[in-house]
Amino acid sequence: MKNKSKSRNEKRWYRGLLKSLKSKEKFSKAKERFSNFLELPQEVMSKVTKITAIENESILIEGYKNIIDYYDDYIKIKANNMDILIDGKNLDIKEITDTDLVIEGKIYSLNYQN
After folding, report:
1. Distance between alpha carbon 112 and the CA centroid of its chain, in Å?
2. Which of 13, 21, 46, 58 could form a disulfide with 54 if both were Cys (CB 3.0 to 4.6 A apart)?
3. Where do the DSSP E strands lie in the chain?
4. 33-76 pLDDT, tens per residue?
């Protein structure tokens, strides 16, 4: 008797898991169709961090979470799935929004950490 009830519980758990995965898949597809309809870039709708460097003078970071350290020669930023380390001289945050950040100055290096 105990084996049958255990087997039934496992099947219920498995069905619940499958139902949850299908719901997430439907939501993901709906979100993708919505962003395509509005012609939004991928990084706007997902949790992707996009980094654009213009020579060694400017960096645009789209999809950051917060600023960890901020000094004249070193900036550490927490992004969605990594930390971004910027070394340079006269570094300054020129623009900042909830999701975007523009850093200017003489940039020596740009590194990533998980």
Report:
1. 13
2. 58
3. 50-54, 58-62, 64-70, 74-79, 83-96, 100-113
4. 777 777 766 656 667 888 999 999 999 998 888 999 999 999 99
